[in-house]
Amino acid sequence: MEKTEILMETKEKQSHFSKSMPKQKKSIPFWQAGGRQMVELALFWCGGFLWSRGEILSLLHPMGMIYLSAFFGTGNIFWGILSGTALGMIGNGDIWKSIGMLLAAVLLELTLGRNVSKEETGKKAVFGAFAVLLGGLFYAVGQGGLRFYFVIAAVESALTLGISLILQKGMAAWADRRNTPVFSREETLAVFLLFGGSLAGAANIGIPFLQGRIFPFLAAFCLLYAAWKDGIGGGAAAGVLVGFLLYVCGSGDLPLLTVFAVGGLLAGCLRELGRFAAAVAFWLTGALFLFYVEQSFLELRWLFWMGAGCLFFALLPMKLLERAGGLWEQQGTKDRYAAMQEAAEERLLGFSHAFQAMAKTFRKTEQKGKKEISSLVDIIAKRVCQNCGMAQYCWQEEVYRTYSMTFSALSCCDTGKKIEVEQMPDWFLELCPRSASYVSAIGEVYSEYRHDLLWTERLRECRELVGQQLAAVGDILAGLAGSVEPEGTLLSGKAEELEFACKKANISLCRVTVTADKNNKGKKVVLYTKDCREKGICRDKILPIVRKVMDCSMQQTEGNVCHITEDGLCRLTFMEEPLYHMTTASACSAAAMNQPCGDSTSFMESERGMAWLAVSDGMGMGEKASEESRTAIELLEEFAEAGFPKETAVQLINSVLLLRHAEENYATLDLCSADLYSGDAEFVKLGAAASYICRGKRLISLYTHSLPAGILEQIPVEKNHMLLKDGDLILLLTDGITDAFGGEQETAAWLQDHFLPHGFANPQDAADFILQAAKEMPKTAVDDMTVLAARFWKKVI
Questions:
Q1: Best CA proximity match to 131, nearest among 142, 121, 123, 120
Q2: Which residues partner with 673 through β-bridges?
Q3: What is the DSSP letter of 146?
Q4: Alpha-carbon distance 223 to 218, whole Å?
Q5: pLDDT digit string (tens) for 13-51?
Q6: pTM listed for this prediction
Q7: Which of 258, 523, 535, 553 would bridge with 577, disulfide CB 3.0–4.6 Å?
């Protein structure tokens, strides 16, 4: 029998390049890098070699230094990239000029470059430009000081400064691609520049394999991707960008630029028909245009590899294509959203600070200490001896003896004994004419003091709990400020595509919002259209379009009805259907006849694909226990629907139960939350009995040792993480069931021997079987019994 299976969550490490750039001290030798880091370093080395082979207008050769400038301050990585860059610069331009640039770069790295961080892109660009300028000036002097060479050096230095800034952004985006859900417009352009420079350098090498195969393959793939991602504008822009880059680098001409631009434009026009149609349109455009305009380019091998690039794009999995950004992203919308997000975060942080300040005010409220005994003596004297003729004698001449006697009497009251007149000293009884009233006043004053002390302590506890509640609200607001976008990311490209598809179907949309979580699951579509007067016409037409555009199974939420907003628009919400489903059933039995069961159960399923199971057992039996457990469950449902974290919800429920009544009240809480997209589950228990997961012929037991809610001001929350699998049966039991079988271990043994062999598929049958078996056990203790069973299964789509 297994106890638990813990789901370990790991976070992918950042690439070696992105980690090494900020601080030179953390760079490591190449031979100590891991496999993935070695592959990335090799790719960057190849990029340096290819960039160094490129040239601009067959005259300028700053490409290698542009690439190398991005690696200033990376320690050992710089020297590795330097070798690739130097190898590429040999034979590309004047060798002495290249040597001068490389030596200047080495000197800058050994002196100023050691303290450059990853974020200082401008400083690295300046270093690269200075190295190019210095090498160019030395070369110009060596050529007799001709003005032409000085001008070339200045132009190459300016190009290095500008292009390096863009290239560094592309390198950073590519190095951190695993942590970036989607590239922005600038990042995508910078990545295109990174690969475009490599492509231009490869074409300039003159190797037939590269020029006749790899070049048309990569060019076709990149242009088709841009056209598919951003439509007509993206395809044409990418075609002009790649064609112009190859033209200025001397690897292409104007007819080739025209082919790329027109082919990208037509591919963008046909993207609604699918990737295959766009790929065919691009290939035919290139073939026909080259046949009628520039027949020298029409080679069977060239067309074959361009077609291979088109086919590769058409067959590539959609998930890989969706990770990258686009060229035509509406940055204005993104900027406005970022500004709104920043403003919302600032507002929430302000609220959080206000609640935290209120919490500190409650916690810092002056706590009055216990009343001094001397003050009690003064109250007694004022109440009894104020008009007595012996007052001056007792409280002035015999003040010490009177105080000592009164202190002793109060100390006797503090032990719980009642003071009688006979217990007082003889001298007091002889001198005091009001001895009986004095003794009675001692008891009354002490009783009032004790009563005030109890209420003061109670109020202190209430203030402390209110302070904790306010602090919890402040923490919640601070957490929301740190994650204003908890739903994940906005899919603006999908929103535009959905709006375009609806427009083709003669459906005018006013607003569209498409979001997804960080794992690209739980896609949500919210759109507003004109009022259809609740006929459902808009819903029936839009749902098929949403499913086609989102390329996944979508379902309408909010009861499959149209909701009319205040401004007269019809709002529709669609959610991606989860991969898994959960079916629940419960069985309960009250401890006494004609009494409600003291246990309460709940099952909730949020629109974001989270399922919640909960069982609560109130203290005792009957109506009082039922009220306590029902309160805990109702609060949990409200907190879960509002999106409270489980830990915060549990602490708030504990505070409510603690403050609800003066007498002791508590309730256990057994909670299971499951992600219906991934199967990740978390079990939280407060004084609850063990839970069990039936997986085929195996039984997994989940034990915790914690106190119920409503006993202590702060309670530790114990959690178990599990990865549920198709067909798992979850069992949440109260202690009435486990006690009937003799304990948690005995319950697990009974389930293994007598329950699992039946293989119940229906959770209702499973819950009824366990409850009936517990009731038939001999010497069953009188207690409420509840079984909550849930079957976790994978949907057949």
A1: 123
A2: 612, 682
A3: -
A4: 9
A5: 333 333 333 333 344 444 444 566 777 788 888 888 888
A6: 0.49
A7: 553
